[in-house]
Amino acid sequence: MRPLIISYFLVAWSIATAAPNANVQNTCPPRLVSAINPFYMQVFNGTCFHFVVNDRKMYRDASIACRKDGGTLAMPKTETLNRYLSNQSLHYYGVVDELWIGLRDHEDDSTFIWADQEQMVWHHLANYQDHDNDWFGKLIEDCVALDPLDGFWYDSPCNNQLWSAALGSDLQKMYICQYSS
Question: C-type lectin domain location, by residue (predicted)?
Answer without folding.
Answer: 44-162
